[in-house]
Amino acid sequence: MPGSVRIAVPGLRRFTGPRPPRPEVCELCGVPVAEQGHRHLVETEKRALVCACTPCALLFDRTGAGAGRYRTVPDRYLTDPAHRLDDSAWERLRIPVGVAFFFRNAALDRLVALYPSPAGATESELDPQTWQSVLGTGRLAGMLEPDVEALLLRRTRDRTDCHLVPIDICYELVGRMRLLWQGFDGGAEARAALTAFFAEVERRAAALPAPRTDGQERPL
């Protein structure tokens, strides 16, 4: 697709290729962490994921902590049943596959759009007007935390779903697709993994309450 470029996302390195034989450790203090379920930080300048133990993750869960070098990835999953994207909206995003995620990079002060491919992550730059008109008016976009959360979109035959998710699971998805992809369309194993992945996202996502007619939100 014109205007797109494949990139090597540093955050993907722990989700692709053979896993090193040594146990996982916190990359800040060195203490062992569980292989599955431990927290991640985003090293904002490098856009890289860093494994963290719970105490270290708590140190960086506030905006501006550590001079902004690290930010803790939250664990919230949200969906907005009131905001659906139609086919014309998806076409305006100019994403050539059925899955993409969007996050706001605080250092660049712009939206970054990525989608999975057999070679890894492919980045497509969106102009601000497109972002605002297609995604920016939704409630999820207004809640998005820069660098550490993403809007994860999946287009199927009858609809396009949008979830607000932790950024690390988006990198995990790209890594899975890179490892499993076969042939032109990805193959049965990659499609099955994609279906299972989004089933888990939907299971975990809390739905935003319906907007009130007086313009105020009901609490979650």
Structure in a nutshell:
The protein is an alpha+beta fold.
Can you give a write-up of this model?
With 220 residues, the chain is an alpha+beta fold. The chain has 6 helices and 11 strands. It folds into 2 domains: 4-72, no CATH class; 78-207, no CATH class. An 8-stranded mixed β-sheet has the order 1-8-7-6-9-10-5-11, covered by helices on one side. Strands 3-2-4 form a 3-stranded antiparallel β-sheet. Helix 5 runs antiparallel to helix 6. The radius of gyration is 18 Å and the shape is globular. It starts with a strand and ends in a 13-residue tail after the last strand. 30% of the residues are buried. Residues 1-8 have low confidence and may be disordered.
Secondary-structure map with pairings?
Blueprint: E1 4-7, E2 39-43, E3 48-52, H1 54-59, E4 70-72, E5 78-79, H2 87-93, E6 99-105, E7 110-117, E8 120-124, H3 128-136, H4 139-143, E9 149-155, E10 160-166, H5 167-180, H6 187-204, E11 206-207
Parallel strand pairs: 5-11
Antiparallel strand pairs: 1-8, 2-3, 2-4, 5-10, 6-7, 6-9, 7-8, 9-10
Helix pairs in contact: 5-6
Low-confidence stretches: 1-8
Overall mean confidence score, pLDDT: 83
For the sheet with most strands, the description reads: 8 strands, mixed
Domain unit count? 2
Placed side by side, the strands forming the largest sheet appear as 1-8-7-6-9-10-5-11
Structural category? alpha+beta
Strand content: 25-35%
Distance between the termini: 40 Å
Total beta strands: 11
Order of helices and strands: EEEHEEHEEEHHEEHHE
Please give the radius of gyration in angstroms.
18 Å
Specify the number of helices.
6
Basic shape: globular
- Helical fraction: 25-40%
